[in-house]
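Lecture 7 notes. Example A: sequence first, then its structure tokens.
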Amino acid sequence: MKKIHLLLLMAASSFLFAQTHFGVKAGYNLSGYKAGNYQLDNKSFFYFGGVVEHQLSEKFSLQIELLFTELGGDDTQDLYDIVGGQVVYLGTQKVILKFPQIQIPVSAKYYISKPFSLSSGFNFGINIDPNVEYNPENFYNKSGKIDNIKTVNIFPFVGTEYRLTENIFIDARYHFNFIKINKEGNIDNKVSIFQIGLGYRFK
């Protein structure tokens, strides 16, 4: 009986492994940062990481990834001070928001007709060191870590993929800014993300 159980377990493991595909991917990441109704300039960055896809049927599969990227936004603001009872213009200050993240996108995929598929899911972004850079710094604004950012940000997304060959694929995604990324405050800070890249499946 033990031998039968062992054979069944080995057969199930072989079946599951046969339906699972591993790969790597990398590409371009464009994030848009919004504080309330104020939109900062978009931030361009790259992303790279690994991907695992498990085929449930000919049409459906589940996919999970582990990626590194950086979100954020840029802004330029005017600086003023009061000197001798008068308001004096001091110039401009560059504000750069940086949110390095380990991202774990989890999605369901539907193959309309191979090699073309659509996907939808949630991306769980783990913030590593959210920080702001002021250039130049002044008495009121100092560069450093941002504490009012959640450890994990959640981004619902939709995407598409096209297989160029059995191993090489291109994909694109848009992440919605439905969920705020800050812990507290009267103004909701939200980030939308667009990604497009190239990947390779080993199996």
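Example B, a different protein, same format:
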Amino acid sequence: MPSSDPTHLLAQDQPHFSLVLGFRLISATLDEVVAEMPATVELSNRNGVLHGGAIMGFADNLGGTAAVINLCPGQSTTTIESKTNFLRPIRIGDVAHGRCVPLHKGRTTQIWQTTITRRDGKVAAIITQTQMMMTWQEPGQDARQNPA
């Protein structure tokens, strides 16, 4: 995907947390976001594999990125529900590959499913998350006086 594509440029604007995870965006369209994350010692659990929280954080960042590039002007998004099925471990030194696709893209909510695979192509986790679409309001601001 050309780096001048507006959707890809918006998707490249990642929060600092994604940098801590080692998140690397591969591609982004309105209906698919693909990224990878190295399984490092810093992200491991006591069993020497990628920590479940790191996998969940990676998936949440993918789903959030997918939701952000589908926002209407003036909207923001937040995760309101997330469910993870862990199927296989990802060993340290491997790379987690994530592919996020929409299950539902509505006006007020979106549901995204992220499949995490290992380098060998086997599925390690499947995450389904619901994103709420909202107009951001500063505390104390009355939405009736300042409609977006």
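Note on Example B: The chain has a mean pLDDT of 92. The CA atoms of residues 137 and 144 lie 11 Å apart.
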